[in-house]
Amino acid sequence: AARRLTAPDIRARKGGEPIVSLTAYHAHTARLIDPHVDFMLVGDSLGMVMHGMETTVPVTVEMMILQGQAVMRGSSRALVVVDLPFGSYEGSPQQAFATASRVLKETGAGAVKLEGGRRMAETVRFLADRGVPVMGHVGLTPQAINTLGSFKALGRDEASAALILDDARAIAEAGAFSIVLEAISEPLARQITQEVAPPTIGIGGSSACDGQILVLEDMLGLSDRVPRFVKKFADIGPAIGAAVESYASEVRARAFPGPEHVYAPKKG
Ligand code: KIV
Ligand code: NA
């Protein structure tokens, strides 16, 4: 089998063929997407998508490690990046290193992602210097929901765009191997992509970015409410509902299980 892609492989894709990525939280979805993506993100969005939480704030390191292990078992080719959850890294570079090294050791993943720009630059440098590849995440940073007030696009006026550009520059200079740009205006995404050395990965960041990511369940049509930046590439929610409806009616009619699903007694 070919070796797994690494953070330096992703870093080297700047300005080339667009980088393809999706989230994965489970072994089975990891197995399905592995042949098609360059990296998969075990996103802390799993708190909202898998567990029905209102925000990503309650997600724990233990949850991220458990799903990170599952995704590693289900994949062999793509780089696996694991999100550091709220509260597990912002306190100090030392706290971030303790969490990130635990995540890498216990999951076998090849990189971590953390949210924040200038305020996290020192931490990004501290981790990158100590063997932890860091993916940055600027623009809309959902872990800051309680200070932001709502999940809305940012950087749409000049003052806010300038701050986000500074955020992206700061973590790029600190050594982030790639940077997620979430829910920002297209001209800003284009400018950041042109100015920073590591590849940018857009989610609501326009095609100007060096790559794209979406939450898998959102693009499959399994989520009830999705942001403007999501395209539904399939609508499997109704297909699941229809399958379950058929199952229920066949069970009630004793049409399932049929003779082909039944074990006969052994002869002799
Ligand atoms: O948690 C997540 O799914 C993410 C991506 C959407 C970038 O951080
Ligand atoms: Na996330």
From TrEMBL:
Its EC number is 2.1.2.11. SUPFAM superfamilies: Phosphoenolpyruvate/pyruvate domain (SSF51621). Mg(2+) binds at residues 44, 83, 115. InterPro entries: Pantoate_hydroxy_MeTrfase, Pyrv/PenolPyrv_kinase-like_dom, Pyrv_kinase-like_dom_sf. One of its GO terms (biological process) is pantothenate biosynthetic process. It catalyses: (6R)-5,10-methylene-5,6,7,8-tetrahydrofolate + 3-methyl-2-oxobutanoate + H2O = 2-dehydropantoate + (6S)-5,6,7,8-tetrahydrofolate. It holds the Pfam family Pantoate_transf. Pathway: Cofactor biosynthesis; (R)-pantothenate biosynthesis; (R)-pantoate from 3-methyl-2-oxobutanoate: step 1/2. It is found in: Cytoplasm. Keywords: Cytoplasm, Magnesium, Metal-binding, Methyltransferase, Pantothenate biosynthesis, Transferase. Binds 1 Mg(2+) ion per subunit. Homodecamer; pentamer of dimers. This is 3-methyl-2-oxobutanoate hydroxymethyltransferase. The gene is panB.
